[in-house]
Write a structure and sequence with these properties.
By secondary structure, the protein is mainly alpha-helical. It folds into 2 domains: 63 residues, Winged helix-like DNA-binding domain superfamily/Winged helix DNA-binding domain (Arc Repressor Mutant, subunit A), CATH 1.10.10.10; 150 residues, Four Helix Bundle (Hemerythrin (Met), subunit A) (Up-down Bundle), CATH 1.20.120.530. It is built from 9 helices and 5 strands, in the order αβααββααααααββ. Helix 2 packs across helix 3 and helix 8 runs antiparallel to helix 9. The relative contact order is 0.13.
Length: 231
């Protein structure tokens, strides 16, 4: 399974497999409805079947994988209704996390965000939009980590995993990527200025606009809960 790229730092084999599969699902490398062959995962990652099964159980509990009565494992699908409801919750929590992060911000944190922005600009210049999407998630995770609330960050991470995998299958217009950069710059400035309320508002607007554009250009087939590109 060539799309699987193990992370550099993990504690156990199960965590390594869990993180690897989760990243592939969130990034869209493993698509909704795609079958996961456990033997091949074990072979590709050089592990036994036991930690693979344990990792699958964790991802099934998160709703990212489905296991049939015949033990067939597939990437779960997502309905438009679920996507909208989960996104609404995610927007509110991400705004609040940004508010908290602003209160904890220091010069080093702002410089880190600016450095990440430089990498995102480079990805756009190279038209590597898949890389941009991955860097975008890291950018947001960095902000939410700074909130200092691990429980809040965990909830946001779970919501991101469930919703971002749908958006990963959709390529935005170059104009949207440019606007996204502008939004991020504004958010960083608000954080640097210590204006938590403005940073919170900008984050909510940024996420809301992105989701609105996605919903206008992406068609969910509700009858079988599978998403397809709008024609």
């Amino acid at each position: 399974m060539s799309v699987l790229h193990p992370p550099f730092q993990v504690k156990t084999k199960t965590e390594m497999i869990y993180s690897t599969l989760r990243e592939a699902i969130v990034s869209g490398d493993l698509k909704p409805g795609e079958r996961i062959v456990l033997r091949k995962v074990a072979s590709d990652l050089g592990v036994s079947a036991i930690p693979v099964r344990e990792a699958v159980k964790l991802l099934e509990a998160e709703g990212l994988l489905e296991v049939s009565a015949h033990s067939e494992v597939v990437v779960s699908k997502l309905s438009e209704t679920d996507f909208k409801q989960l996104s609404d919750i995610r927007i509110m929590l991400e705004g609040y996390a940004t508010l908290l992060a602003t209160k904890n911000a220091d010069e080093e944190f702002v410089k880190d965000l600016e450095s990440q922005m430089a990498k995102m600009r480079t990805a756009i210049e190279k038209q590597d939009f898949r890389q941009y999407s991955k860097l975008n998630i890291i950018f947001h995770q960095t902000i939410y980590q700074k909130s200092g609330n691990e429980h809040l960050k965990k909830i946001i991470d779970d919501l991101t995993a469930k919703t971002e995998r749908a958006r990963a299958l959709f390529i935005s217009t170059p104009q949207r990527y440019t606007k996204s950069i502008e939004d991020h710059v504004a958010i960083i400035k608000a954080i640097a200025d210590g204006d938590g309320e403005r940073a919170q508002k900008l984050m909510c607007q940024h996420q809301s606009e992105g989701i609105e554009i996605f919903l206008k250009n992406f068609k969910f087939a509700e009858e079988d809960k599978q998403y397809n590109l709008a024609e």
